[in-house]
Amino acid sequence: NLAPGCAFLVETLACPFHGWEFACDGKCLRIPYGKDPTEVPSEARFNKYTRLEINDQILFWFDAEGREPYWTPPELTGIRAGNWVFRGKTQHFLNSHIQEVPENAADVAHLNYLHGPILLNGTDLRFSHSGFKFMRHDWEASWAPNAAAGEEHLSTLNLVHRVYIFGIHFPLVDFFVKATQIGPGLVYLTWDSIFGSGVFVQALTPQEPLLQNLTHCIYAQRMVPIFIAKFYMIGEALQVERDVMVWNNKTYRSKPLLVAEDSLIAQHRRWYKQFYSENSPRYSAAHDGADW
Questions:
Q1: Alpha-carbon distances of 233 from 114, 164, 240, 274, rounded to whole Å
Q2: Which of 31, 166, 167, 185 is 20 to 30 A from residue 84's alpha carbon, by CA?
Q3: pTM of full prediction above 0.70
Q4: Would you state the pLDDT for residue 234?
Q5: How far apart are CA 146 and CA 271, in angstroms?
């Protein structure tokens, strides 16, 4: 990783270890302590990736077959126009298969069980069902892959969150979410509430085999009070931490035991297969090298 301590020169990057200078195409141009600094082995280069700056993110394209990008994430006009402003970020590291996180969108059956108990009961699943019962979160969800031509890499989760106290619905805290999954690791969760609208930008980045970095950045309309945006961010983070406890203790199975009501999970897996290819690294290969 050249980023920590890397020197940005006029047209090159200098490695902080020995000062080797690399051009933007990845080729090493100069070894400063060499007898002839410009005499460089042809193997001295690093991989170059296509990058895209969009929605306050810097994204790069990785394809195991070396293909150029054949889809790009949609632009969030609310962020580009400045109508949605940044209000915070959360980060979680997961010991899990990368597919566990996006598959949550189609696993609608887990919502009212895992995420139904009041947040005051905490995120430790050993106790979340044994605390306060006067209040509960209620979830209504549907998931489907996008059918339009050119949108095969997209899927959509529509989610409605309601709160019931002593069995009475309190519409003041109703929360409506449209979560668009883009490729294997990016999700835009646009939301609407009585206070206004915004988006959670979710990114899932592999760090090493079976270690994922999950981040959520929240953006909200300027009219949404900051403390409300922070409340949404904390609430979302606490719900995610319930999932994290599952993901950290769950084995990914290529052929899980499902019942008829889990049919969306099987459909999601068929949709997600498009992001694997012939040369996608297997765990055994990734475990023995650095190609992951």
A1: 18, 20, 10, 31
A2: 185
A3: yes
A4: 97
A5: 10
